[in-house]
Structures are given as C-alpha cells and as structure tokens.
UniProtKB/TrEMBL annotation:
Pfam families for this protein: HTH_1 (PF00126), LysR_substrate (PF03466)
Keywords for this protein: Activator, DNA-binding, Transcription, Transcription regulation
UniProt family annotation: Belongs to the LysR transcriptional regulatory family.
Listed InterPro entries: LysR_HTH_N, LysR_subst-bd, WH-like_DNA-bd_sf, WH_DNA-bd_sf
Transmembrane portions of the chain: none
PANTHER family, sorted: TRANSCRIPTIONAL ACTIVATOR PROTEIN NHAR, TRANSCRIPTIONAL REGULATORY PROTEIN NAC-RELATED
Protein name: Transcriptional regulator, LysR family
Domain named HTH lysR-type: residues: 12-69
Gene that encodes the chain: lysR
Species lineage: Bacteria, Pseudomonadati, Bdellovibrionota, Bdellovibrionia, Bdellovibrionales
Length: 300
C-alpha cells in the first residue's frame, strides 16, 4: 500500500516497511521469509526497493547475519511505533464497538482490598456505557499487561518501578492499618501494641511497602513478633487469621465483613502505619475514555 508523503516526491510503501520490520526483528531474511511465508528472493527485492526509495542502506551483513545501520535503527524505531499504534487502534476499536459499549479491563493485585476494587468498578459504570473485566494477579505480570495495553487500569498497593517508564500512577487512598485476630486473642487489646510481643503474625510479602513499614515500626518500638507466615493474598491472610493461626495487619475496610460477623476482632490501630493504594494507566495514543475519566477524577 503506497502512501504519499506530503511535500516530498518519494512514496512510502507500508508493505515494504512491514517486511523490513520483520527482517529486523528476526535478524535474517531467511527467518523473516519463513515467518512471512514468502520466498527469500522476493523478500530481498522488497527490502532493496525500500532502501532505494529511502536512499539509505538499512542493514549491513556481518558473519552471515544482518545488523541495522544507523539509518536502519532510526527506521526501525519509527516502524515499531507505526505497527504498535496500528495494533492498538484495532484493539481499541474492537473493544469500543462491541455492543456499543466501551470495554474497560481493570487489573488488581491480590493484596488490594475487594471493597476498593468494587468502588472503582461502580465508578466506571457511572462514567458511561461500559462493560468491565477485572483481572487479579501478580504485580509485575499485571504491569507488563498494562504497558502492552492488554489492560486499561491497574490497582496496586505500591507505585510502578523504573522498569515501567510508560506507566503513570496516582495515589487514591491512604488507609490506616489495624491488627486483627480471632476472638481468642482479644485479651491483647490491653497494653496494645506492646502486648504483641512474641505473638504469631501473618505478614504481607517482602515486596510490599506495608511489610517494610511494619518491620520498621516493630523494630523502633522494641517489639519482637513471631512471623510464622507471609502472603500477598489478603483473602488467605484473613482465612488464616479467623482460624486462629496468627495475627494479621490489614486495612480495616478489607476485613469489615469478618469484623461485623465477629469472626475477627480488632486489637488496635498501628499509629503512623497505612496502606497506600495506587491507580495506574499506561501512556497511549488512543485513550480508553472511561479509563481516562477514572484516572482524572477517581479518589476515595
């Protein structure tokens, strides 16, 4: 498909650009021809035609392999953006045109309280006609899916790290952390938090900010606790807590149902310790309108 470039005499053939992009990714014409289901001579001719139209050699051959020239590296960077944007356009249009509803895909870490996830979903419906999918999983896996535009939003209890530079985030809540346990531990309310000395705890995993804050808090206050288990899944943490296995540090909203049913009791609030919840999105050329509204206005 030749496309005219305004104010220039040359034409850019997007089929040729696609072939170049595949050759660059595969590292050889032979591998690219196999992937494209084309003959090698035909593919070589297409590449040559692109180079002639640009007036630049895009590859140099060293030790039976193709390596991008400086011009080739620039061309590959632009081609990568062109085809990534094209794939994004197809995904967005397919999602938005299904049943005339905007499809919003929300990822959430296991450690994010379910009432907060529910509130985000409810607010999404208030923003417009949409269908919502909620996916739970591990942090880095969901961040990769967010970066690849396979999900639109991500709820996490820690901000994105430097490896995900296309992802931006905002803090939507800071929630006090309480210590809960089954009723057999309710005597620990007296002289809290020093009554926690030597008690069994089910901690969040080491990757979370809460875990580091808890360890710092207990160290500063000279309280030694017995860490008998750790998990990032708050559902498992609550289950072990109500079974009397140990004490759980958790935001109260995450355990409100069990507290109301008296399956867990609150022993006390840890002063200065809180769980911060983040809402994240990735930079996109074509924004999901519902996700964009939530990123702009949502807070708890």
């Amino acid at each position: 498909m030749p496309v005219r470039i305004e104010n220039q005499v040359q034409w850019l053939n997007y089929h040729h650009l696609h072939y170049f992009h595949v050759i660059a990714k595969e590292g050889s014409i032979a591998k690219a021809a196999e992937k494209l289901n084309m003959g090698q001579p035909t593919l070589s001719i297409q590449l040559k035609q692109l180079e002639e139209s640009l007036g630049k050699n895009l590859f140099e051959r060293r030790k039976q392999r193709l390596f991008l020239t400086e011009a080739g590296k620039i061309a590959f960077e632009y081609a990568d953006q062109v085809f990534r944007l094209g794939a994004e356009m197809v995904e967005v249009l397919q999602d938005r045109l299904q049943n005339n509803r905007v499809h919003v895909q929300i990822g959430a870490l296991d450690s994010v309280p379910k009432p907060i996830i529910s509130e985000v979903v409810l607010q999404a419906y208030k923003q417009g006609n949409c269908a919502v999918s909620v996916l739970e999983g591990a942090g880095n896996d969901l961040l990769r899916e967010l970066s690849a535009h396979q999900i639109d939003l991500l709820l996490s209890n820690y901000p994105p790290n430097v490896d995900f530079q296309t992802v931006y985030a905002k803090s939507i809540a800071k929630l006090d952390v309480v210590v809960c346990a089954s009723a057999k531990y309710k005597h620990l309310r007296r002289d809290f938090p020093y009554s926690l000395e030597g008690q069994p705890f089910i901690f969040p995993t080491i990757h979370s900010r809460l875990r580091r804050d808890l360890e710092h808090y207990f160290s500063v206050n000279g309280i030694r606790v017995d860490r008998i288990a750790e998990t990032q899944d708050t559902s498992l943490q609550k289950l072990l807590g109500q079974e009397g296995v140990g004490l759980i540090p958790i935001v109260e909203v995450a355990a409100s149902d069990l507290i109301r049913e008296k399956k867990l009791v609150v022993l006390g609030t840890l002063p200065g310790i809180y769980e911060e919840i983040w809402l994240m999105a990735a930079n996109r050329k074509i924004d999901n309108p519902i996700a964009a509204k939530l990123m702009k206005s949502f807070t708890l």
